[in-house]
């Protein structure tokens, strides 16, 4: 049964490369979580550089942890890189999200569902 839905947003406004990261506070033991992140806005205000990309923005889940049977937190479980946009974790401890941007103004929406 769904118990909470929480939303956050991350924003990057940058000419050069910027990484914004967000890690949740630890969830109570026994909390099951489904989380996702998605770009919700991309604006390209910047002049084209002489080399490199015109602009780029990437939103993804970097890693997550869970509680072991003894109550300790696991090592970070690495996702599939920039393709990891959603994850379901039983007995979730924490989740870390990332938003990269270069020559862009971009916003990403994070949704966390606990059940």
Any key phrases for this structure?
Jelly Rolls; four-stranded antiparallel β-sheet; 58% strand; mainly beta; 115 residues
Describe this structure in words.
The protein has no helices and eight strands. The chain has strands at residues 4-14, 18-23, 33-43, 56-66, 77-78, 86-89, 92-102, 104-114. The mean pLDDT is 93.
Strand content: over 45%
Radius of gyration: 16 Å
Q: What is the count of DSSP helices, taking H or I runs of 4+ residues?
A: 0
Q: Round the mean pLDDT to the nearest integer and report it.
A: 93
Overall geometry comes to elongated
How are the strands of the largest sheet arranged? 1-8-3-6
Low-confidence stretches: none
The largest sheet, given as strand count, sense and whether it forms a barrel, is: 4 strands, antiparallel
Task: Please name the CATH topology.
Answer: Jelly Rolls
**N to C succession of SSEs:** EEEEEEEE
Draw up the topology in text.
Elements: E1 4-14, E2 18-23, E3 33-43, E4 56-66, E5 77-78, E6 86-89, E7 92-102, E8 104-114
Antiparallel strand pairs: 1-8, 2-7, 3-6, 3-8, 4-5, 4-7
Summarize the structure.
With 115 residues, the protein is mostly beta strands. It has no helices and eight strands. The chain has a single domain, classed as Jelly Rolls (Sandwich), CATH 2.60.120.
